[in-house]
């Protein structure tokens, strides 16, 4: 059997690193390439043979079901479980287990709501089945693994240890990291303690390893991006539009730009680098927008220059203003002739007067 029919999608995080994008919207619902990011994950799971998905929700849980409903529009059966108290990754998995119908030895796919990946899900299920593992992990290789959990494996791919966020050169024994997608044997999920916070990375996996369980790693170094920061989120959306990150849910052909219906773009405006212009948004004459996301009903006035930035829903960017690596919250107003760079964030509803912020060229 090379398909997992059921999946758990962990979407409970608060997305604090993504503020102000996540003040009104949970991270998985922030638009990427024109649709909520979660849509891409659901569509990829469906394409890999998954039929039933349980969403483990917590923060702003009430927004998921009105949007996705029972999942039938995506060819899925979606159910929702809301945590009353934060339970961590392992606790969230255990909390939704009663919704699963798989038999004890059947594979259940588990993945995180903030990872954009080109993972071959069917290959991970096949690896799991062939190796007879209790749990299989998607591993990817990164140049600097210090911010991640390392997962060394032996010659057969069997996991030998879990090393959380190493710092010294001696601790960095591999460049393989936990990439946030797993296949669990259904019966293993029931061994996670119920009703309390559990970290799957710090408690469940090391505990299983210590008990002699078989944990298998599959290295798949296709596209992988943690969308935890605004810069990463903007890049991920652009990569979806450009076709670098695969998704069956991009609402249009891949290319340099994605302009949603009802958006208005001046004929001489330039949109490049995987830029997305949301429904009802307006791009003024002579504006240049590169590698950026302009959310619904936002306005970019004439001759503004927006690069690698995100402009929130209903926000307004004044004429000749330059944004580079900036995040503008929903409903914010940035006046004309400003220059905002290098990760600056403007809060939802804030107002910046004309020519109030400038970076001199010698900085």
Strand order of the largest sheet: 5-4-1-6-11-8-12
Largest sheet: 7 strands, mixed
Structural class by sheet pairing and helices: alpha/beta
Number of helices: 7
* Helix proportion range: 10-25%
Strand count: 30
In angstroms, what is the radius of gyration?
22 Å
Q: End-to-end span in angstroms?
A: 59 Å
Strand content: 25-35%
pLDDT below 50 for ≥5 consecutive residues: which ranges? none
**Whole-number mean pLDDT:** 90
> What gross morphology would you assign?
elongated
Domain Nucleotidyl transferase: 7-239
Family: Belongs to the transferase hexapeptide repeat family.
Pfam family, one: GMPPB_C
InterPro entries: GMPPB_C, Mannose-1P_guanyltransferase, NTP_transferase_dom, Nucleotide-diphossugar_trans
Summary, kept brief:
This protein has 363 residues and is of the alpha/beta class. It has helices at residues 37-47, 64-68, 88-96, 121-131, 186-189, 200-210, 230-242, and strands at residues 6-11, 31-32, 35-36, 52-57, 77-82, 107-112, 115-117, 135-141, 149-150, 163-164, 176-185, 215-219, 224-226, 257-259, 264-265, 270-272, 275-277, 282-283, 288-290, 293-294, 299-300, 305-307, 310-311, 316-317, 322-324, 327-328, 333-334, 339-341, 345-346, 351-352.
Characterization of this structure:
There is one protein chain. Helix 3 (88-96) crosses helix 6. 47% of the residues are buried. The model has no long low-confidence stretch (mean pLDDT 90). The protein has 7 helices and 30 strands. A 7-stranded mixed sheet has the order 5-4-1-6-11-8-12, with helices on both faces. Strands 14-17-20-23-26-29 form a 6-stranded parallel sheet, with helices on one face. A 6-stranded parallel sheet has the order 15-18-21-24-27-30, with no helix packed on it. A hairpin with a 2-residue loop joins strand 2 and strand 3. The protein is elongated and about 65 Å long. 18% of the residues lie in helices and 28% in strands. It is an alpha/beta fold and 363 residues long. This is NDP-sugar synthase. Pfam families: GMPPB_C, NTP_transferase. Residues 255-336 form the Mannose-1-phosphate guanyltransferase C-terminal domain.
């Amino acid at each position: 059997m090379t398909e997992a029919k059921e999946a758990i999608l962990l979407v409970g995080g608060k997305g604090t690193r993504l503020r102000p994008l996540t003040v009104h919207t949970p991270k998985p619902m922030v638009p990427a390439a024109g649709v909520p990011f979660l849509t891409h994950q659901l569509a990829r799971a469906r394409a890999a043979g998954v039929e039933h998905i349980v969403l483990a929700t917590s923060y702003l849980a009430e927004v998921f079901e009105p949007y996705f409903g029972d999942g039938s529009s995506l060819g899925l059966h979606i159910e929702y479980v809301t945590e009353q108290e934060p339970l961590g990754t392992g606790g969230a998995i255990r909390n939704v287990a009663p919704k699963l119908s798989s038999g004890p030895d059947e594979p259940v796919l588990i993945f995180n709501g903030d990872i954009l990946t080109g993972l071959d899900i069917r290959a991970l299920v096949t690896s799991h089945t062939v190796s007879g593992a209790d749990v299989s992990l998607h591993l990817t290789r990164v140049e600097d693994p210090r911010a991640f959990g390392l997962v060394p494996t032996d010659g057969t791919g069997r996991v030998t240890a879990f090393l959380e966020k190493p710092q010294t050169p001696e601790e960095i024994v591999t460049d393989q990291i936990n990439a946030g997608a797993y296949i669990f044997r259904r019966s293993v999920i029931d061994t996670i303690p119920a009703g309390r916070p559990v970290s799957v990375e710090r408690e469940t996996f090391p505990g299983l390893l210590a008990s002699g369980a078989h944990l298998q790693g599959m290295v798949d170094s296709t596209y992988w991006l943690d969308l935890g920061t605004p810069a990463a989120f903007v890049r991920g959306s652009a990569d979806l539009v450009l076709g670098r990150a695969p998704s069956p849910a991009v609402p249009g052909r891949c290319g340099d730009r994605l302009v949603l219906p009802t958006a208005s773009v001046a004929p001489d405006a330039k949109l490049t680098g995987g830029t997305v212009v949301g429904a009802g948004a307006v791009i003024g004459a002579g504006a240049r927008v590169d590698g950026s996301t302009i959310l619904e009903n936002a306005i970019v006035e004439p001759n503004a220059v927006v690069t690698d930035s995100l402009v929130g829903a209903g926000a307004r960017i004044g004429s000749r203003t330059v944004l580079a690596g900036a995040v503008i919250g929903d409903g914010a107003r940035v006046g004309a002739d400003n220059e905002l760079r290098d990760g600056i964030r403007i809060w939802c509803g804030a107002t910046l007067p004309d020519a109030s912020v400038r970076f001199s060229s010698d900085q």
